[in-house]
Amino acid sequence: MDSMRDRFASVASRMLDEDPRVAVVLAEIGAAGFAETLRRHPGRVINVGIREQLLIGAGAGLALTGMRPVIHTFASFLVERPFEQIKLDFGHQDTGAVLVSAYGSYDAPAGGFTHMSPGDVALLDTLDGWTVHVPGHPDEAETLLRHAVGAGDDRVYVRLSEQKNGRGLPVDGARFLTVREGRRGVVVAVGPMLDAVLAATEGLDVSVLYATTVRPFDSAALRRATETAGPEVVIVEPYLAGTSTAAANDALTDVPHRVLGLGVGRRELRRYGRMEEHVAAHGLDPASLRERIEGFMRARVAV
């Protein structure tokens, strides 16, 4: 199976062939995947070098001319380092683009903390008007990337990951999918967390929702699920724990409920390790998730 980044390069190259509005803007990272495409479209594949603020500024300039820029680098360099440019060049100027990241929370641990960005979605949450897609499989990444590029001139963030589920599901860029139905709580699995959540909840009487578009948050799907499964909600995200807790609380504001946000902790892990070791250290492996989910659901009975 190819990776999400591999799929991104091939799909973006095809979209350059198909749509004269599309331009790809890079900051050195990922440029090798567009070498052949650059020869076909020398004016629409732009590598600004290791200049992340310029990466965003160049993309915004293209948007002002009517282009649909697709801007790509690692998450820490795409969202955190040039955040002021995102806020002003896109938000303040009311322009749109598709930001496509890779290597988010801990996908490249050998790079150290400079190459980790567990807070990217939470940071974008401070800005107005961003759609956020978090695919869990290369097929979903392709679907959501095409959806993002075709979304008029909207501001869209597509968060790619080295982690992936075993199979892709028919995502539509808007709704949560119901993967499992139960009556003792709701677990929302975001993107590449689905396989771990399904393993962790095997045999538990809980509903599992699958979220690959987290902004806007599908409040209607969560409300429907809680009507039959009860108002205990666990959200398992591949980035900063609690990022979507407020959105879930807003969805259930008129209903007595409890929400537990599971994800990447705030404590910096100061050893490189392997990706799997970071998953376990943050309690996102199936065994840890089961213990935390069962403990949360049992607490309802004790109240």
TrEMBL record:
Superkingdom, taxonomy of origin: Bacteria
Name of one Pfam family that matches: Transket_pyr
InterPro entries: PDH/Transketolase, THDP-binding, Transketo_C/PFOR_II, Transketolase-like_Pyr-bd
Transketolase-like pyrimidine-binding domain ranges (all copies): 2-168
Name of this chain's protein: Transketolase, pyridine binding domain protein
Organism annotation: Streptomyces graminofaciens
